[in-house]
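go over both lines:
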Amino acid sequence: MDTTEFEAAYGALLEAAAIAGLGVPSEEAWDVDTVLAHIIASSRMLAAASAELLSGRTPVVDNRPTQSRAYFDAIARSAARRSELVGSVRRCGQELVILASQLSEEQTARRVPTIIVDAGRVRVERPVAFSSLLESGHIHEHLEQLREWLEGRMSQRAAARNEGNLCQLAARAIP
């Protein structure tokens, strides 16, 4: 699988996340560290699924753990500093890219049982082509979120729409 776009998306996300002073747009939205922890959890989920495909098995992709406040807090607390959290995003992204680059066209076309939940609502609950789960839209949406925070232009409407999480937008892109 060609991972060029995926790698570029992670690179841009890391660049934005590394900038000091990123703040919280509102009390309702996730803060930057929570978004980064969510990206780490999502990358781990997709890396594990990629490894399953490479081993000849069909993974079940279930993003519910990537929505867990307890999991985010554990990830963030284990990092201690934003720079360590950014380093974890980098490593998890690299692991995913390395695994995804080994997947054949046949493997990425395989339909895998998938559950995508966002804000407590099931958005996808059916088999989908694994390639659609590896598209960089999810990373790009969170990158845009970080850029909005950087520019101080995250509106209350956007914050309320996101609640910090953009899995709903990613789920809409899944055919």
Observations:
- The chain has one domain: 4-172.
- Strands lie at 61-62, 111-118, 121-129.
- Confidence is low (pLDDT under 50) at residues 168-172.
- The first strand starts at residue 61 and ends at 62.
